[in-house]
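Bench log. Compound arrived from synthesis this morning; before running ITC I wanted a structural hypothesis for how S-adenosylmethionine sits in the protein. Inputs:
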Amino acid sequence: MVRAKSNLTEGGLIDLVEIREGDALETLSKDLPDRIDLLLLDGAKALYPEILSLVESRLRPGALVIADNADFSPDYLERVRAPAGGYMSTPFGDDVELSMRPN
Ligand SMILES: C[S@@+](CC[C@H](N)C(=O)[O-])C[C@H]1O[C@@H](n2cnc3c(N)ncnc32)[C@H](O)[C@@H]1O
């Protein structure tokens, strides 16, 4: 979180991001914005599917989901790569999974 926050600040993007500190299973379980443009998963890999479920209904059409070290979350990969799962998904770079929710 600290590194991500300073990178966002240095990049001039901090005003576009809402930061919620604490256990993501709690902080993302309530009061979500109506529309989420980007979800970056880089916490506990085993929680990726659960975190996605928490925010999925708010992902806008075209929203991107970026999951770092996704190979450590096979359940997550199975879900976003499933033909009927609602995502277009592809491996990207070094163990990153890039997924888009078309609608
Ligand atoms: C690989 S590091 C990511 C660092 C982050 N990308 C950054 O730039 O600072 C994983 C982080 O996820 C955090 N984490 C693990 N489980 C979490 C949870 N349930 N809620 C929030 N953060 C969690 C860990 O404490 C750790 O700081």
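What the model suggests: The mean pLDDT is 94. The chain is about 30% helix and 25% strand.
ITC booked for Thursday regardless.
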